[in-house]
Amino acid sequence: MESVSNTPAEVSATMDCEGNTDAFEKVKSKKSHKRKRHAAEVDMQPEETVAAKRPQFPALSGAQLTGGAVEMRKVPVPAHRYSPLKENWMKIFTPIVEHLQLQVRFNLKTRNVEIKTCRETSDIGALTRAADFVKAFVLGFQVEDALALIRLDELFLETFDVTDVKPLKGDHLSRAIGRIAGKGGKTKFTIENVTKTRIVLADTKVHILGSFQNIKMARTAICNLILGSPPSKVYGNIRAVASRAAERF
């Protein structure tokens, strides 16, 4: 039989290991430490409040908004617009009744175009649009141009007097109106095309139909003509302003 002999160094090392078994400590794993720290951070965070839902209400009809009351607008018609109104009555009547769902009539006694709402009227702003449409036609605009007030938003009418810009009388006033119109209406047409507006000259009154920015450009050009600026200079100014506005938008 083979005898197992241990050296004194091995025997002493074995004895040291057996005697110090209680000295070992259990090492904590890093994963469990991370989990506990993450759980503590989650507990420290405040609970997010649930956003309250917005209340949803059904859309109200035109009759409910007005409380069932019938509203009416009257547009007076001057004597020189009776014949054009009679000739274009169906063009005025059709969009107001079929598209805006309103009632319209021409009162022969009071010489007014009367527009009022009814049960079928769904848009609360239809009455104002129809009144602006009829008013634009009465002022002298073509029916096709006035229809833009019904179809498009942000279109306005502006009226001012030539004498509001400069107090002119007699031939001076006539020449100022002639400068606005130009030979054969050339100046007026040029301003309309560049500024994308429509202009009506009625005696000393100037009516402009268009958007706010375009009305401002046309009004500035007309005021310069009234004050005596030559048309060539006015053309250059409005073209420069129009090109800058086109680049901006």
TrEMBL record:
Residues 1-51 are annotated as: Disordered. InterPro entries: KH-I_PNO1_first, KH_dom, KH_dom_type_1_sf, KH_PNO1_2nd. It is found in: Nucleus, Nucleolus. Residues 154-227 form the K Homology domain. Its main location: nucleus. Belongs to the PNO1 family. This is RNA-binding protein PNO1. The lineage of its organism: Eukaryota, Metazoa, Chordata, Craniata, Vertebrata.
